[in-house]
Amino acid sequence: MTHYRAIWISDVHLGTAGCQANYLLDFLKHNEADTFYLVGDIIDGWRLKQTFYWPQSHNDVVQKLLRKARKGTEVIYVPGNHDESARQYFGMSFGDIQVVEEVIHTTLDGRKLWVTHGDLFDGVMQYAKWLAYVGDSLYTFILYINRYYNRVRVKMGLQYWSLSQYLKHQVKNAVSYIADFEHIMAREARLRECDGVVCGHIHKAEIREIDGLLYCNDGDWVESLSALVETTSGELKLIYWTHIKGDPVEEAEVISPSNTLLPTLEATT
């Protein structure tokens, strides 16, 4: 078990076939933190509205996070666009998990990092949301192909490999979009008088300096299988969990809505 000052994860997309819940469960099993940030798109409300998909492993992720909160880990949830319905609960807690609009994390060396999902500063999401829905459908199809391809790779003892990440890096417009997003987030962090930003949303893990500010993206758990961490010595780094260390969790049958834990969580102010 490795202990960190803080762990950030985002874009888990529970409720979709592309979610790598088994890898995430293994990551949660082997890593602890004083503070655990859920930086949006943890549950994919968009996809669940169309088709209900909720394997036991997705339920297990929710249980694992709730258990960490009960045992004393500060768990802070910053909703994103795919779980935007949770934004109506800002200032409330669900099973000791705090729901907030945004939050400031102070590193060991005193730097202030603004933590937000990032969709509110994405021009496509704000001015052409229909395009985001179209893109999401295409993205889901690519993940469907990638899922079966990686089953073969795992049987061959190879690491997880992301087709969608590869395509993003090959398409000039996608690369330009990512670069624009990164600069916008750094600018917004400066306006908030912070030393940097931690976000998700674009599924591209990154730590770099932009115009004198620290830009950190924790990636996702459908493509990158990544998390951002702050070590006990104050170092910020990315972790890629492309190999399961413990016994893998078998993919179970989809469970019915009445058996899920989510509706039974009690909110407190």
UniProtKB/TrEMBL annotation:
Domain Calcineurin-like phosphoesterase: residue ranges: 6-204
Molecular function via GO: metal ion binding; UDP-2,3-diacylglucosamine hydrolase activity
Domain of life, source organism: Bacteria
Annotated CDD domains: MPP_YbbF-LpxH (cd07398)
GO CC, any one term: membrane
One GO biological process term: lipid A biosynthetic process
Residues annotated as signal peptide: none
Keyword Transmembrane helix assigned: no
Keywords: Cell inner membrane, Cell membrane, Manganese, Membrane, Metal-binding
Protein name: UDP-2,3-diacylglucosamine pyrophosphatase LpxH
Organism: Polynucleobacter brandtiae
